[in-house]
Design brief:
single chain; mainly alpha
Amino acid sequence: MITYIQAIILGALQGVTELFPISSLGHTVILPTLLGWHIDQSANSFVMFLVATHLATALVLIGFFFKIGH
């Protein structure tokens, strides 16, 4: 199970690294291992968390660029 603090850290990492030509997904998978977090990365809840963070990032970027264009 992922804690709220872990979710915030991984979500922030996903949001920051999405803007650069590096793998944001890779970071969100590697970081828990490096920090010794015991998260079942094959669990449906973790996969859904990753999908949700990517969706949130996409929506924010679409909103940002839509606002700039107008």
